[in-house]
Amino acid sequence: MFSVTGPKMYLQSNVFSPAFLSADSQISISARVGSSAVLPCQLRNVPTETPQVEWQNNAETVFERFGQDLHQADGYTDRVDVPEHNLLKGNCSLELKNIRLDDEGVYESYLILKEGDRSKRVFIQRVKLSVEETDQEFVKGFLEDDIATQQALDLTGIIAFILILCILFP
């Protein structure tokens, strides 16, 4: 588990450092519910022996790795990773497993650079993830709606039958 002592202090860098960043600043990918996806991210040069990378979705940190230490946010536990051996080679791609509809959104990756007692966040990559329902999810939703409608019709029929009986046999 990632442990942090004291509040995180980041200096947001809006300056793109061509020495570290990948060529594309935003890409779009799509995946189906239940599948896996790789949100691409590549560092041209790894500026330290143990790079620290962070991935966010809607300004929430969903994953962070510093060496063997990692943090996975609630809802992402055991579903996200940037393998350490890949990161050491400059591949900071986020592997996302068992995709859910609520995983859809814009993900951003950052390189965390230590400067004394402060850290500097350097933007690397923005990836828009679109999530599509599988045919099975669509059919399941349709059947659930159909079952609810059928149950309502069955109940209405039963009530009408009881009313008729009450009228015929007071």
UniProtKB/TrEMBL annotation:
Residues annotated as signal peptide: none
Keyword presence, Glycoprotein: yes
Domain of life of the native organism: Eukaryota
UniProt xrefs under InterPro entries: Ig-like_dom (IPR007110), Ig-like_dom_sf (IPR036179), Ig-like_fold (IPR013783), Ig_V-set (IPR013106), T-cell_Activation_Regulation (IPR051713)
Predominant location category: membrane
Sequence intervals crossing the membrane: 152-169
GO biological process, one term: T cell costimulation
Membrane topology recorded in Swiss-Prot or TrEMBL: Single-pass type I membrane protein
One Pfam family linked to the record: V-set
Residues annotated as domain Ig-like: 18-107
Localization in the cell: Cell membrane
Keyword vocabulary terms for this entry: Cell membrane, Disulfide bond, Glycoprotein, Immunoglobulin domain, Membrane, Receptor, Signal, Transmembrane, Transmembrane helix
GO CC field: external side of plasma membrane
PANTHER family: GALECTIN 17-RELATED, T-LYMPHOCYTE ACTIVATION ANTIGEN
Protein name (database record): Ig-like domain-containing protein
Organism encoding this protein: Pygocentrus nattereri
